[in-house]
Write a structure and sequence with these properties.
Strand content: 25-35%
Radius of gyration: 16 Å
Helix content: 10-25%
CATH architecture: Roll
Largest sheet: 6 strands, antiparallel
CATH superfamily: Hotdog Thioesterase
Number of strands: 6
């Protein structure tokens, strides 16, 4: 699963509120809801943040794989948790993200997602463009595998 990361890694941090609707009858965030947390963080990382920076957002990304390890229960709270994401591998058509959903030193979830660049018009995978590869390398963990532009 998500391995330890060098302190030099620049992580994307997305504060995510725990909504009352996220909590199930057992009093903790339902396991399926954590995928929503990861999706919200990806939307921020690949679409909204680039627009705020005045650059083009990623176009056409699909999730090919998710792995998730639940470390401890997350309950309703006033303050948001942090969804931290970083890149561990970049290939010509796909890349891998590691994630932690945490509050300080307390880790609730560790996850890994493989995303594939996708051409919607052709309904087929596409190559990542140089701008996208450069953006991904901002979050690439040092010493990780993958093509460095």
């Amino acid at each position: 699963m998500a391995e330890a990361v060098s302190s030099t890694t620049h992580r994307h941090v997305f504060p995510r509120a725990v909504r009352f609707a996220d909590v199930d009858s057992l009093g903790h965030v339902n396991n399926v809801r954590f995928f929503d947390y990861l999706e919200d963080a990806r939307l921020e990382m690949f679409h909204l943040d680039p627009r705020r920076e005045g650059t083009a957002p990623f176009r056409g990304l699909v999730v090919a794989r998710h792995e998730i390890d639940y470390r401890r229960p997350l309950t309703f709270r006033l303050h948001p948790v942090r969804v931290e994401s970083w890149v561990t591998e970049v290939r010509p058509v796909r890349f891998t993200l590691n994630h932690e959903i945490r509050d300080g030193e307390e880790i609730f979830v560790q996850a890994r997602s493989v995303l594939v660049a996708y051409d919607v018009a052709k309904s087929a995978p596409r190559r990542l463009d140089p701008h996208e590869i450069g953006y991904l390398h901002r979050f690439l963990a040092s010493g990780e595998r993958g093509r460095k532009a």
